[in-house]
Specification:
single chain, 321 residues, Beta-Lactamase, elongated
């Protein structure tokens, strides 16, 4: 069953399809060449070395018998490594997957034993001239070496809910919200944040209401975050340190919606003494609001849906889900 379109899993499926199409043919040719050299280790190593150049981005190429025991050296771009001859690979993730009718398996990604990095292995069944199964050829790949064959994954904009720490959820009925310094100075804080987002290039803000701080990212320097403490958030002079910038034309959130969104965050922070907002985030390019409540449950919700929901919705069960 195909995963829903636009999801991270669907992006993975499409990437794997592209990798399979890229690797299947070369592994089949390798298996055919090796089938004629299967009974002699030196000849088998030569056949693998000749095939290595056919397989893009391969890290190691080797042959296994039907029990998963390696019967060749490891062939690599810089030479032949005999140390893994006789290695039992039968319990490795790529040897425990079902082999389809075409004899080709592209394993799920796993963490390699030696480099401790995300890797995957392609396995191709090897048959002799009489169609008898002789074993397998295996090709290992480091994920960082594989070409990106699919476009960059786009973060979805549908509502997602994530349960938090069960220890916190279990004690939610025994806690009471305490006014933070940010709560006491909420009007000034929200006005400063609105100005930074509307006119000074801040495209992502994370407001930590309980600990009275904010983390911001700017469009002209997106790889670095900046931490604003409560002294900065309550001082409008902070806006002087960030040059004025035009509001991004490709933002999914219009400038006039920033203040209503921030006001909604304030409402969720103050709506109840037991169930209340601890952290709120807004990204004007994603068009998504992030919410983490006192029960540690988190929501990622499109801006239009967020603005449609009143406090009654959240008090009726939203944050507890």
């Amino acid at each position: 069953m195909e995963p829903p379109k636009g999801t991270l899993q669907e992006a993975i499926v499409q990437q794997r399809k592209s990798l399979r199409a890229m690797l299947h043919g070369p592994l089949q040719k390798t298996a055919e060449l090796c089938s004629f050299a299967w009974q002699d280790r030196a000849t088998l190593d030569d056949a693998l070395a000749e095939s290595f150049r056919l397989i893009p981005s391969c890290k190691y190429l080797y042959a296994l018998n039907t029990d998963g025991i390696q019967i060749s050296s490891n062939i690599a771009a810089d030479g032949v490594y005999p140390s893994d001859f006789g290695r039992n690979r039968s319990q490795r993730p790529y040897m425990r997957e079902k082999v389809p009718s075409d004899g080709f398996v592209l394993s799920q990604a796993y963490i390699s034993m030696r480099a401790k990095r995300p890797s995957l292995t392609a396995i191709q069944l090897v048959r002799g001239p009489d169609w008898r199964v002789l074993g397998f050829v295996g090709a290992d790949f480091d994920l960082r070496d594989l070409p990106i064959t699919h476009k960059l994954y786009d973060e979805p904009t549908y509502w997602r809910q994530i349960k938090g720490d069960p220890a916190i959820r279990g004690t939610v009925f025994h806690q009471t919200r305490a006014d933070s310094i940010m709560d006491i100075n909420m009007e000034t804080v929200l006005s400063v944040v609105e100005e930074l987002m509307a006119a000074h290039g801040v495209h992502h803000v994370m407001l930590h209401f309980s600990s009275s701080r904010a983390v911001i990212w700017l469009t002209e320097d997106p790889l670095r975050y900046r931490l604003l403490d409560i002294d900065a958030l309550t001082d409008p002079n902070i806006c002087l340190t960030y040059p004025r910038r035009p509001y991004p034309a490709d933002a999914l959130v219009s400038r006039d919606l920033i203040r209503p969104i921030l006001d909604n965050l304030r409402g969720l922070r103050l709506m109840d003494e037991m169930f209340y907002l601890r952290t709120g985030t807004l990204n004007i390019f994603n068009g998504v609001v992030g919410l983490t409540f006192s029960c540690d449950g988190s929501h990622y919700i499109p801006v239009d849906e967020f603005l449609d929901k009143g406090e009654g919705f959240w008090m009726g069960g939203g944050p507890q889900t």
